[in-house]
């Protein structure tokens, strides 16, 4: 039995202890926003945040997250409204096929949680573990910069 908090909600799971977190999220719990790209930890499509750290969920056995707090891309929206970061991805055309975007959003979220005002180079470094073949990285970096700028305007 594994107890875990996902997007703020407690879950108690009866599953194989070595089942991949990615599979449990998608198939057992229905968090299909988390995507499988390579299944080998190389592309970042399956990125989630566990206890504040960005990880590839395809590499994590479910037994390793017992007692942890997990944030998936579904947890970014608030009351059905896109987060500022998600809104900027849409506004700046940083989305296309949708395979890499959940992981890119999670990498950006992890960065902004630890650095509220990153430079363009820091943004590039933060998303370096996430591969995109459709949109290209410029629009994604621009969207993250816009989210930073919008947050700074609000303060």
Largest sheet: 5 strands, mixed
Number of strands: 5
CATH fold label of the largest domain: Ubiquitin-like (UB roll)
Q: Biggest sheet, strands in spatial order?
A: 2-1-5-3-4
Question: N-to-C terminal Cα separation, in Å?
Answer: 43 Å
Please work out how many helical segments DSSP would assign: 5
Mean residue pLDDT: 95
CATH architecture title of the largest domain = Roll
Query: Helix amount, in percent?
Result: 25-40%
In the residues, how many domains can be counted? 2
Q: Structural class, please?
A: alpha+beta
CATH class of the largest domain: Alpha Beta
Features of this protein?
single chain, 155 residues, alpha+beta, Ubiquitin-like (UB roll), DNA polymerase, domain 1, 2 domains, five-stranded mixed beta sheet, 35% helix
Brief rundown of the structure:
With about 160 residues, this protein is of the alpha+beta class. It has helices at about 20-30, 85-90, 100-115, 120-125, 135-155; strands at about 1-5, 10-15, 45-50, 55, 70.
């Amino acid at each position: 039995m594994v107890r875990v908090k996902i997007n703020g909600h407690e879950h108690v799971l009866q599953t194989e202890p070595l089942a991949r977190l990615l599979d449990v999220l998608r198939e057992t719990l229905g968090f299909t926003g988390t995507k499988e790209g390579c299944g080998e930890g190389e592309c970042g499509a399956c990125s989630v945040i566990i206890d504040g750290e960005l990880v590839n969920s395809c590499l994590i056995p479910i037994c390793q997250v017992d007692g942890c707090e997990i944030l998936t891309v579904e947890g970014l929206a608030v009351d059905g409204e896109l987060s500022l970061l998600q809104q900027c991805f849409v506004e700046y055309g940083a989305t296309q096929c949708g395979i890499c975007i959940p992981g890119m959003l999670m990498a950006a979220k992890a960065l902004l949680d630890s650095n509220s005002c990153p430079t363009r180079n820091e943004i590039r470094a933060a998303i370096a573990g996430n591969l995109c073949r459709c949109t290209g990285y410029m629009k994604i970096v621009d969207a993250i910069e816009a989210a930073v700028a919008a947050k700074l305007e609000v303060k």
